[in-house]
Amino acid sequence: MVEEDVVKVTSRYLRRSEDQIEEIYETLGIETLNDLAASQPSEIAEAFGISEKTAKNIVRDARKEASKGIAEPKTLAELMEEEAERDVIPTGIDSFDEQMGGGLPTKTIVGIYGPPGAGKSQFAMQVAARVLKEGESVLYIDTENAFSPQRLLEIGGFDEDDVKKKIGDRFVLRQIVEAAALTQYFDEEEGEFVSEALELSPKVVVIDSISQPFRPYGARDKLPERSRMVARILNSLLKYCTRNNALGLVTTHVQANPDAFGKRWQDVAPTVLKHIATYRFSIEFKGRTERVIALEDAPDKPPFEVKVKLTDRGLVG
Protein backbone atom coordinates (compact mmCIF):
# COMPACT_ATOMS: atom_id res chain seq x y z
CA MET A 1 0.00 0.00 0.00
CA VAL A 2 1.57 3.28 -1.13
CA GLU A 3 1.61 5.87 1.65
CA GLU A 4 -0.32 9.12 1.17
CA ASP A 5 2.82 11.19 1.77
CA VAL A 6 4.55 9.49 -1.16
CA VAL A 7 1.72 10.53 -3.45
CA LYS A 8 1.70 14.09 -2.05
CA VAL A 9 5.43 14.58 -2.66
CA THR A 10 5.16 13.28 -6.21
CA SER A 11 2.06 15.36 -6.98
CA ARG A 12 4.08 18.52 -6.42
CA TYR A 13 5.81 17.87 -9.73
CA LEU A 14 3.42 15.69 -11.76
CA ARG A 15 -0.09 16.18 -13.08
CA ARG A 16 -1.23 12.62 -12.58
CA SER A 17 -4.11 11.15 -10.65
CA GLU A 18 -3.42 9.60 -7.27
CA ASP A 19 -4.37 6.20 -8.68
CA GLN A 20 -1.86 6.52 -11.52
CA ILE A 21 0.93 7.52 -9.14
CA GLU A 22 0.11 4.68 -6.74
CA GLU A 23 0.01 2.15 -9.58
CA ILE A 24 3.48 3.10 -10.84
CA TYR A 25 4.99 3.07 -7.36
CA GLU A 26 3.46 -0.33 -6.67
CA THR A 27 5.21 -1.74 -9.74
CA LEU A 28 8.49 -0.28 -8.41
CA GLY A 29 7.92 -1.66 -4.91
CA ILE A 30 7.94 1.84 -3.40
CA GLU A 31 5.47 2.25 -0.54
CA THR A 32 6.99 4.63 2.03
CA LEU A 33 8.85 7.94 2.05
CA ASN A 34 11.97 6.04 3.08
CA ASP A 35 11.56 3.78 0.04
CA LEU A 36 11.26 6.81 -2.21
CA ALA A 37 14.19 8.55 -0.49
CA ALA A 38 16.38 5.51 -1.13
CA SER A 39 15.43 5.16 -4.79
CA GLN A 40 17.49 6.27 -7.77
CA PRO A 41 16.16 9.31 -9.69
CA SER A 42 16.88 7.52 -12.98
CA GLU A 43 14.49 4.74 -11.94
CA ILE A 44 11.74 7.24 -11.10
CA ALA A 45 12.34 9.17 -14.32
CA GLU A 46 12.01 6.05 -16.47
CA ALA A 47 8.91 4.77 -14.69
CA PHE A 48 7.01 8.07 -14.96
CA GLY A 49 8.45 9.18 -18.30
CA ILE A 50 9.81 12.42 -16.83
CA SER A 51 13.16 14.21 -16.86
CA GLU A 52 15.84 13.10 -14.43
CA LYS A 53 15.92 16.64 -13.03
CA THR A 54 12.27 16.36 -12.01
CA ALA A 55 12.88 12.91 -10.58
CA LYS A 56 15.79 14.27 -8.53
CA ASN A 57 13.48 16.92 -7.09
CA ILE A 58 10.97 14.25 -6.08
CA VAL A 59 13.63 12.12 -4.37
CA ARG A 60 15.12 15.21 -2.72
CA ASP A 61 11.73 16.22 -1.30
CA ALA A 62 11.12 12.67 -0.09
CA ARG A 63 14.41 12.75 1.81
CA LYS A 64 13.54 16.12 3.28
CA GLU A 65 10.08 14.97 4.38
CA ALA A 66 11.44 11.72 5.78
CA SER A 67 13.90 13.61 7.96
CA LYS A 68 11.37 16.17 9.22
CA GLY A 69 9.59 16.32 12.46
CA ILE A 70 9.88 17.19 16.11
CA ALA A 71 10.11 14.21 18.40
CA GLU A 72 6.85 13.32 20.06
CA PRO A 73 6.72 13.61 23.87
CA LYS A 74 7.47 10.30 25.58
CA THR A 75 6.70 8.97 29.02
CA LEU A 76 9.37 7.42 31.20
CA ALA A 77 7.82 4.02 30.54
CA GLU A 78 8.15 4.56 26.78
CA LEU A 79 11.75 5.69 27.17
CA MET A 80 12.59 2.59 29.18
CA GLU A 81 10.93 0.43 26.55
CA GLU A 82 13.06 2.08 23.85
CA GLU A 83 16.16 1.56 25.97
CA ALA A 84 15.38 -2.14 26.19
CA GLU A 85 15.20 -2.32 22.40
CA ARG A 86 18.85 -1.31 22.01
CA ASP A 87 21.22 -4.01 20.87
CA VAL A 88 24.72 -4.41 22.25
CA ILE A 89 27.58 -5.08 19.84
CA PRO A 90 30.49 -7.02 21.38
CA THR A 91 33.99 -5.90 20.45
CA GLY A 92 35.59 -9.25 21.23
CA ILE A 93 37.75 -7.63 23.95
CA ASP A 94 36.44 -9.55 26.96
CA SER A 95 37.52 -7.13 29.70
CA PHE A 96 36.18 -4.15 27.73
CA ASP A 97 32.85 -5.80 26.92
CA GLU A 98 32.40 -6.79 30.55
CA GLN A 99 32.82 -3.19 31.68
CA MET A 100 30.41 -2.00 28.98
CA GLY A 101 27.70 -4.49 29.85
CA GLY A 102 28.31 -6.68 26.82
CA GLY A 103 29.69 -4.22 24.27
CA LEU A 104 28.80 -0.98 22.49
CA PRO A 105 25.11 0.03 22.56
CA THR A 106 23.29 0.78 19.33
CA LYS A 107 21.36 3.99 18.62
CA THR A 108 24.49 5.89 19.63
CA ILE A 109 27.63 7.47 18.22
CA VAL A 110 30.85 6.27 19.84
CA GLY A 111 34.09 8.24 19.54
CA ILE A 112 37.59 6.85 20.01
CA TYR A 113 40.83 8.85 19.86
CA GLY A 114 44.51 8.09 20.19
CA PRO A 115 47.96 8.64 18.66
CA PRO A 116 48.91 7.19 15.28
CA GLY A 117 49.39 3.43 15.41
CA ALA A 118 47.71 2.99 18.78
CA GLY A 119 44.88 0.90 17.35
CA LYS A 120 41.90 3.15 16.56
CA SER A 121 41.39 1.60 13.12
CA GLN A 122 42.06 -1.87 14.53
CA PHE A 123 39.28 -1.28 17.05
CA ALA A 124 36.91 -0.12 14.31
CA MET A 125 37.71 -3.09 12.06
CA GLN A 126 37.30 -5.46 15.00
CA VAL A 127 33.79 -4.16 15.66
CA ALA A 128 33.05 -4.40 11.93
CA ALA A 129 34.29 -8.00 11.81
CA ARG A 130 32.11 -9.01 14.76
CA VAL A 131 29.04 -7.52 13.07
CA LEU A 132 29.81 -9.30 9.79
CA LYS A 133 30.09 -12.60 11.64
CA GLU A 134 26.58 -12.04 13.01
CA GLY A 135 25.19 -11.69 9.49
CA GLU A 136 24.81 -7.89 9.62
CA SER A 137 26.19 -5.25 7.25
CA VAL A 138 28.85 -2.55 7.64
CA LEU A 139 29.40 0.79 5.90
CA TYR A 140 33.02 1.85 6.40
CA ILE A 141 34.04 5.40 5.43
CA ASP A 142 37.81 5.70 5.10
CA THR A 143 39.02 9.32 4.94
CA GLU A 144 42.73 8.50 5.06
CA ASN A 145 43.08 5.97 2.23
CA ALA A 146 44.49 3.60 4.81
CA PHE A 147 41.92 0.81 4.96
CA SER A 148 43.36 -2.69 4.53
CA PRO A 149 40.88 -5.38 3.43
CA GLN A 150 43.44 -8.07 4.27
CA ARG A 151 43.65 -6.78 7.84
CA LEU A 152 39.86 -6.96 8.17
CA LEU A 153 39.93 -10.57 6.97
CA GLU A 154 42.77 -11.37 9.36
CA ILE A 155 41.01 -9.85 12.37
CA GLY A 156 37.74 -11.59 11.51
CA GLY A 157 39.33 -14.91 10.63
CA PHE A 158 37.64 -14.82 7.23
CA ASP A 159 38.83 -16.71 4.16
CA GLU A 160 38.13 -16.33 0.44
CA ASP A 161 35.12 -18.61 0.68
CA ASP A 162 33.62 -16.35 3.38
CA VAL A 163 34.14 -13.34 1.13
CA LYS A 164 32.42 -15.02 -1.82
CA LYS A 165 29.51 -16.60 0.00
CA LYS A 166 28.92 -14.75 3.27
CA ILE A 167 30.34 -11.29 3.79
CA GLY A 168 31.40 -9.92 0.40
CA ASP A 169 28.17 -8.01 -0.29
CA ARG A 170 27.60 -6.93 3.31
CA PHE A 171 30.70 -4.76 3.65
CA VAL A 172 30.83 -1.50 1.70
CA LEU A 173 33.86 0.82 1.74
CA ARG A 174 33.61 4.51 0.88
CA GLN A 175 36.86 6.49 0.53
CA ILE A 176 36.20 10.22 0.94
CA VAL A 177 39.22 12.37 1.70
CA GLU A 178 37.93 15.96 1.42
CA ALA A 179 35.76 17.74 3.96
CA ALA A 180 33.38 19.23 1.40
CA ALA A 181 32.85 15.83 -0.25
CA LEU A 182 32.24 14.16 3.12
CA THR A 183 29.73 16.83 4.09
CA GLN A 184 27.96 16.49 0.75
CA TYR A 185 27.86 12.71 1.11
CA PHE A 186 25.99 13.04 4.43
CA ASP A 187 23.64 15.77 3.20
CA GLU A 188 20.14 14.62 4.14
CA GLU A 189 18.50 15.97 0.99
CA GLU A 190 21.02 15.40 -1.79
CA GLY A 191 23.78 13.22 -0.33
CA GLU A 192 24.28 9.55 -1.09
CA PHE A 193 24.53 8.35 2.52
CA VAL A 194 20.78 8.21 3.04
CA SER A 195 20.10 6.06 -0.02
CA GLU A 196 23.15 3.83 0.51
CA ALA A 197 22.36 3.27 4.17
CA LEU A 198 18.71 2.51 3.51
CA GLU A 199 19.70 0.01 0.81
CA LEU A 200 22.51 -1.69 2.78
CA SER A 201 20.96 -1.35 6.27
CA PRO A 202 24.35 -1.33 8.02
CA LYS A 203 24.39 -2.27 11.68
CA VAL A 204 27.61 -0.30 12.05
CA VAL A 205 28.72 2.86 10.22
CA VAL A 206 32.40 3.74 10.70
CA ILE A 207 34.03 7.11 9.93
CA ASP A 208 37.80 6.60 10.16
CA SER A 209 38.61 9.39 10.81
CA ILE A 210 36.56 12.57 11.14
CA SER A 211 39.77 14.56 11.78
CA GLN A 212 41.72 14.03 8.57
CA PRO A 213 39.42 15.79 6.06
CA PHE A 214 39.19 18.84 8.31
CA ARG A 215 42.90 19.49 8.78
CA PRO A 216 42.73 22.49 6.39
CA TYR A 217 40.10 23.99 8.71
CA GLY A 218 42.36 24.32 11.74
CA ALA A 219 42.79 28.10 11.56
CA ARG A 220 40.67 30.09 14.00
CA ASP A 221 38.64 31.79 11.27
CA LYS A 222 37.79 28.37 9.78
CA LEU A 223 36.53 26.80 13.01
CA PRO A 224 32.89 27.97 12.73
CA GLU A 225 32.64 26.52 9.22
CA ARG A 226 34.26 23.28 10.40
CA SER A 227 31.78 23.03 13.28
CA ARG A 228 28.80 23.49 10.96
CA MET A 229 30.06 20.86 8.52
CA VAL A 230 30.89 18.30 11.20
CA ALA A 231 27.51 18.90 12.86
CA ARG A 232 25.71 18.15 9.60
CA ILE A 233 27.67 14.93 9.18
CA LEU A 234 27.17 13.68 12.72
CA ASN A 235 23.51 14.67 12.96
CA SER A 236 22.78 12.75 9.77
CA LEU A 237 24.69 9.74 11.13
CA LEU A 238 22.98 9.88 14.52
CA LYS A 239 19.56 10.15 12.91
CA TYR A 240 20.22 7.00 10.91
CA CYS A 241 21.57 5.11 13.93
CA THR A 242 18.64 6.10 16.13
CA ARG A 243 16.01 5.13 13.59
CA ASN A 244 17.65 1.88 12.53
CA ASN A 245 19.05 0.57 15.83
CA ALA A 246 22.59 0.93 14.50
CA LEU A 247 25.97 2.08 15.84
CA GLY A 248 28.08 4.97 14.57
CA LEU A 249 31.79 4.61 15.32
CA VAL A 250 33.98 7.68 14.74
CA THR A 251 37.75 7.91 15.19
CA THR A 252 39.69 11.13 15.81
CA HIS A 253 43.30 12.28 16.01
CA VAL A 254 45.31 13.70 18.92
CA GLN A 255 47.99 16.29 19.49
CA ALA A 256 50.82 16.46 22.04
CA ASN A 257 49.62 17.68 25.44
CA PRO A 258 51.64 20.72 26.65
CA ASP A 259 50.65 19.94 30.25
CA ALA A 260 53.62 18.04 31.68
CA PHE A 261 51.46 16.57 34.43
CA GLY A 262 48.62 15.33 32.23
CA LYS A 263 48.35 12.71 29.51
CA ARG A 264 50.91 12.72 26.71
CA TRP A 265 48.14 13.30 24.19
CA GLN A 266 44.96 15.30 24.09
CA ASP A 267 41.90 14.79 21.94
CA VAL A 268 41.47 17.30 19.12
CA ALA A 269 38.04 16.05 18.09
CA PRO A 270 35.65 18.79 16.95
CA THR A 271 33.67 20.07 19.93
CA VAL A 272 30.42 19.01 18.30
CA LEU A 273 31.56 15.36 18.35
CA LYS A 274 32.24 15.61 22.07
CA HIS A 275 28.63 16.69 22.53
CA ILE A 276 26.97 14.27 20.11
CA ALA A 277 28.95 11.12 20.96
CA THR A 278 27.28 9.15 23.76
CA TYR A 279 30.52 7.36 24.66
CA ARG A 280 34.10 8.54 24.13
CA PHE A 281 37.18 6.38 24.55
CA SER A 282 40.91 6.87 24.30
CA ILE A 283 43.49 4.26 23.31
CA GLU A 284 47.16 4.73 24.20
CA PHE A 285 50.48 2.91 23.99
CA LYS A 286 51.78 1.07 27.06
CA GLY A 287 54.50 -0.89 25.28
CA ARG A 288 55.27 -2.41 21.89
CA THR A 289 52.03 -4.40 21.75
CA GLU A 290 50.35 -3.32 25.00
CA ARG A 291 47.59 -0.72 24.93
CA VAL A 292 45.19 0.87 27.41
CA ILE A 293 41.61 1.69 26.40
CA ALA A 294 39.93 4.18 28.71
CA LEU A 295 36.32 5.31 28.92
CA GLU A 296 36.55 9.10 29.04
CA ASP A 297 32.91 10.15 28.92
CA ALA A 298 29.58 8.35 29.30
CA PRO A 299 26.12 9.15 30.65
CA ASP A 300 25.62 5.88 32.49
CA LYS A 301 29.03 4.44 33.45
CA PRO A 302 31.98 5.58 35.57
CA PRO A 303 35.37 5.98 33.86
CA PHE A 304 37.41 2.79 33.54
CA GLU A 305 40.58 1.47 31.95
CA VAL A 306 41.34 -1.93 30.47
CA LYS A 307 44.72 -3.28 29.40
CA VAL A 308 44.79 -4.99 26.02
CA LYS A 309 47.29 -6.40 23.54
CA LEU A 310 47.48 -5.78 19.82
CA THR A 311 47.74 -9.15 18.07
CA ASP A 312 47.31 -10.61 14.59
CA ARG A 313 43.65 -11.17 15.46
CA GLY A 314 43.10 -7.66 16.75
CA LEU A 315 42.91 -6.29 20.27
CA VAL A 316 42.53 -8.86 23.05
CA GLY A 317 42.30 -8.50 26.77
CATH fold-type name of the largest domain: Rossmann fold
Q: Which regions are unreliable across 5 or more consecutive residues at pLDDT < 50?
A: none
Strand elements, count: 13
Between the first and last Cα atoms, what is the distance in angstroms?
A: 51 Å
Cα radius of gyration in angstroms: 21 Å
Give the overall pLDDT as a whole number: 88
- Say which CATH homologous superfamily of the largest domain is assigned: P-loop containing nucleotide triphosphate hydrolases
Question: Counting H and I runs of at least 4 residues, what is the number of helices?
Answer: 14
Whole-number tally of structural domains = 2
Q: In this structure, how is the largest beta sheet organized?
A: 9 strands, mixed
Describe the strand arrangement of the main beta sheet, using strand numbers.
5-4-6-7-3-10-11-12-13
What share of residues is helical? 40-55%
**CATH top level assignment of the largest domain:** Alpha Beta
Alpha-beta classification: alpha/beta
Corresponding CATH architecture of the largest domain = 3-Layer(aba) Sandwich
Shape: globular
β content, as a range?
15-25%
Order of helices and strands: HHHHHHEHEEHEHHEHHEHEEEHEEEE
Brief summary:
By secondary structure, the protein is of the alpha/beta class. It has helices at 4-11, 18-28, 33-37, 41-48, 52-66, 76-85, 94-99, 120-133, 149-156, 160-167, 179-185, 193-200, 223-244, 271-276; strands at residues 88-89, 104-105, 108-113, 137-142, 171-175, 202-208, 247-252, 254-256, 265-267, 279-285, 290-297, 305-311, 314-316. The chain folds into two domains: 4-66, Orthogonal Bundle (DNA polymerase, domain 1), CATH 1.10.150; 82-316, Rossmann fold.
